[in-house]
Amino acid sequence: MEASWEVSVTDSINTIYLLFSAYLVFVMQLGFAMLCAGSVRAKNAMNIMLTNVVDAVVGSISYYLFGFAFAFGTDSNPFIGTQFFALMDIPNSSYDYSYFLFQWAFAIAVAGITSGSIAERTQFSAYLVFSFFLTGFVYPVVAHWVWSSSGWLSPSSSSLVFGSGAIDFAGSGVVHLVGGIAGLWGALIEGPRVGRFDAFGKPVPMRGHNATLVVLGTFLLWFGWFGFNPGSYAKILVPYPDSTDQGNWTGVGRTAVTTTLAGSTAGIVTLFGRRLLVGHWDALDVCNGLLGGFVAITSGCAVVEPWAAIVCGFFAAWVLIGLNILALKLKFDDPLEATQLHGGCGAWGLIFTGLFAKEEFVVQAYDSGESGVTRPYGLFLGGGWGLLGCQVIEVLVIVGWVSLTMGPLFYALHKLRILRISVDEEVAGLDISSHGGYAYTAHQEETPRFYADYMRLQDRS
């Protein structure tokens, strides 16, 4: 009786921990909304906030109906799950409702990443289509590969690739690289915003209208990342057998520390790096640098030492800075830098894990610290090429899979003329042309204040 009571208490605490982590990850939706709203021009603020809401609500339905089943269906299919549609047979011995909620919060974050790449020029109906498809099919398949015990690239699989499987603990690849590559194709197919590049191909600055919202959104995302990364342990009351005072609670604390150090390092490197490049201190660049560090450490947060997290953040900052420079040279327009930030830093995070993962921590994260277990670990720490090879494979298959699915989808929407808005609508702003009015009550006199005013201007032209 006493043993049963202890098990019940342990399960209850683990469930509370997982639910609290899910709530923190959901707070990131608010962070995304504020970051996006501040990063676009005022005439599109209502539109971008609405798309963030739509990403959450549409993603909820698609992930409930299909996504969770494709991601975590407990069968032997290494490519895609085929059970638990609409949560049928949940809860069971493997998953319960709290686990679904935690994974749902991850799924809707992916669509939010992609929305930023195509902001300020996309028809609202297109968001409904790609959000449903991305959260209900494209993302869950990748999650199955890496996070399901039957996934072909999973470190928990019975037949490990290179004897290792890919380590993507909280989703630098599964979440961020997927969202970034989807955004890449959306932005490429739509093309840059009107006026983003002049007649000679030189970039014209289009700064976001509210730095306060950007900073607020950044701190909300930082707060949510404490659920995103440490919460990916799923259970906190798991003792390690070779230690009397260490368990998952130790790993959870270390993961929060590595997350903080990587983001902070990337933020300060971006601060001084951009100061050297543009000649002034830029709060918005620092915010994106900070987020780039978080994205990069998300893969290896549980399996690296704190000092390695600093290395991760340092290089993540330069990856982001370099990709932003390259994007301008290629006339690629991503208002939120989502492709560069989530795609570029996500890919770096996977490679970083293959270089710096510590064997002891890998065993703790994936085998609950079981004694006598050996696993491939970071190349730079003497662990060989197995893990790094799996990390490179994950990068390549994610880029390929998302390109093969989201690329044709965006192209089809483009050909059907339901992807990009007209030039007139874009110049006037999506708020007035599609959403009935601006997000703010104060306007310049020469701009239309209400949808009726916008229609009268259209009639005159």
TrEMBL record:
Residues annotated as transmembrane: 16-37, 49-72, 97-119, 126-147, 167-189, 210-228, 307-328, 377-410
Gene Ontology molecular functions: ammonium channel activity
InterPro entries found in the cross-reference section: Ammonium/urea_transptr (IPR029020), Ammonium_transpt (IPR001905), Ammonium_transpt_CS (IPR018047), NH4_transpt_AmtB-like_dom (IPR024041)
GO cellular component: plasma membrane
A biological process from GO: ammonium homeostasis
Coiled-coil annotated residue ranges, if any: none
Source species: Rhododendron simsii
Family according to the record: Belongs to the ammonia transporter channel (TC 1.A.11.2) family.
Membrane topology, as annotated: Multi-pass membrane protein
Listed Pfam families: Ammonium_transp
Gene3D superfamilies tied to this protein: Ammonium transporter AmtB like domains
Protein name, per record: Ammonium transporter
Location of this chain's protein in the cell: Cell membrane; Membrane
Superkingdom as given in the UniProt entry: Eukaryota
PANTHER family in the cross-refs: AMMONIUM TRANSPORTER (PTHR11730), AMMONIUM TRANSPORTER 1 MEMBER 3 (PTHR11730:SF95)
Domain called Ammonium transporter AmtB-like: residue spans: 18-440
Keywords associated with the record: Ammonia transport, Membrane, Transmembrane, Transmembrane helix, Transport
